[in-house]
Amino acid sequence: MPVDPSDTDARDRGRPASDEREPNHAGGVTVEPGTMDDVETVADLWVRLADGQRSHGTHLAAAENRPAAADAAARAVVTGGLVVARASAPDPDESGADAGLPDEGSRGVVGFVTFGIESGRYDLDVTRGAVYNLFVREGYRDGGVGAELLAAAESALADEGVDVVALEAMAANRDARRFYERHGYDAHRIELEKPVDGDGSDSD
Length: 204
Fold this sequence. Notes:
Shape: globular
Radius of gyration: 17 Å
Enzyme class: transferase
InterPro entries: Acyl_CoA_acyltransferase (IPR016181), Bact_Acetyltransf (IPR050832), GNAT_dom (IPR000182)
CATH architecture: 3-Layer(aba) Sandwich
CATH topology: Aminopeptidase
Keywords: Acyltransferase, Transferase
Largest sheet: 6 strands, mixed
Number of helices: 4
Pfam family, one: Acetyltransf_1
Strand order of the largest sheet: 1-2-3-4-5-6
CATH class: Alpha Beta
Helix content: 25-40%
GO molecular function, one term: acyltransferase activity
């Protein structure tokens, strides 16, 4: 799943939000747990996120995966792994759909983050939390909303007892990598890929 902060603001992370905390407010945007009423909007935003990652080399299809994205968002609501950023008013400096502003039926959702605790067939020496997706609408970027969403996910995962938080970013997405580095993330595992048409070298 793609992860893209869509927010290059360099300020420190704000106070986290979770089901048991008061919502956070960042520049007229409230960061709070998502509900089932937000699922369809989150699925639409996920499609934008995935489509934007195409320019960075992702193989993940966008619109074709919308049903799966909606299912994942609904599961995240049930597990407490969805936090949304909700705007109380339109961005005064932007207008229209091209600015990425919330439309009717979106309930003001301008960004979201999904997260959870990793599980697999092998035992680990740490409990790992994972941030699966992070996205902010274009008209609300560069104002700290992405940082608020990330902080909310990290806080909720810490409350669940994780030792570390992991996430993925496309190697070519330098803005995303810089964003996460500013928030304390370091490279942990490198994924390598090679086409099977012989473009790569087989020699040592």
